[in-house]
Amino acid sequence: MKKIFLFTLIVIIAAGGFYTYKEYNRTNKDLKNAKADVNTDVTSLIAAFEKDSASANKQFIDKLVAVTGNVKAIDTNGNPVVIALGESGQMSSVQCSMDSTYADEYKVIKEGDRLTIKGICTGGRTEEMFGTDVILNRAVIENKK
Fold this sequence. Notes:
145 residues, single chain, 31% helix, five-stranded mixed barrel, alpha/beta
């Protein structure tokens, strides 16, 4: 009886240790070579969230979204760097929190450049005075046009 109990205890401890090791060493999937679930442009993506945010959430949240548009602003003050895609003069934009693994690729980007950036969509927020912002996390540059 003691041997069965001891064996069971050892198996439980080993399984717990293995699980802890796997979780501690877990990394995010590299999005650079991943195929986008959705391809769209800035105007269409923002319009989807402005028209019906509940429907847009179902369509885009937790999906890898590739969005094409002009660079409206670049915020290098934080980590990660945030590249805003959108039309100048418009309040709304797609806020792309860039993956720091590929920092060298977006250091050469300038306002006005036309890009396709892909990232995991975490939703959008609409504020009457500030427009709609759609958020992409762990974003990478797919191509520069």
